[in-house]
Amino acid sequence: MKKGKKEDDIRCPLEHAFEIFGGKWKPRVICVLGVKGVLRYSEIRREMTDITDAVLASTLKELIADGIVERRQYNEIPPRVEYFLTEKGKSVGPILISICKWAGMYQRTNSERAENMCLRCDFRR
Question: Among candidates 96, 41, 102, which has minimal Cα distance to 72?
């Protein structure tokens, strides 16, 4: 698991925000859970085809530690574990959508395609 900055090292709220939901994988996990709701690990993995198990497990642990994602385990046979966004996690959705739309305006590729990608992550559905 990557080591984040210590609280004392963070001088700006923006730095704090990017420690929590920045990077390559965290926003994608948040979007998947935001749109799909409650998912099991294998379902998240299926939605994010190009992530390794180790990276997904580490990303989920970090998001859980930061209060963005909650993990619920059921005492069943076989064991069942589900992941879902907390209220704090859901509040990140509009921020990520805004960032996506902004990036789409300046992306070198087709901006219509970028807009469609943002709509796929729209938490308001």
Answer: 41
Question: Half-sphere exposure of 61 toward its Cβ, with a 13 Å CA cutoff?
Answer: 10
What is the full DSSP assignment across the chain? Answer: ------GGG--SHHHHHHHHH-SSSHHHHHHHHHHH-SEEHHHHHHHSTT--HHHHHHHHHHHHHTTSEEEEEE--SS-EEEEEE-HHHHTTHHHHHHHHHHHHHH-SS-HHHHHHHHHHT-TT-
pLDDT per position as a tens digit, 25-57: 999 999 999 999 999 999 999 998 889 999 999
pLDDT-based confidence at residue 61 (cuts at 50, 70, 90): very high
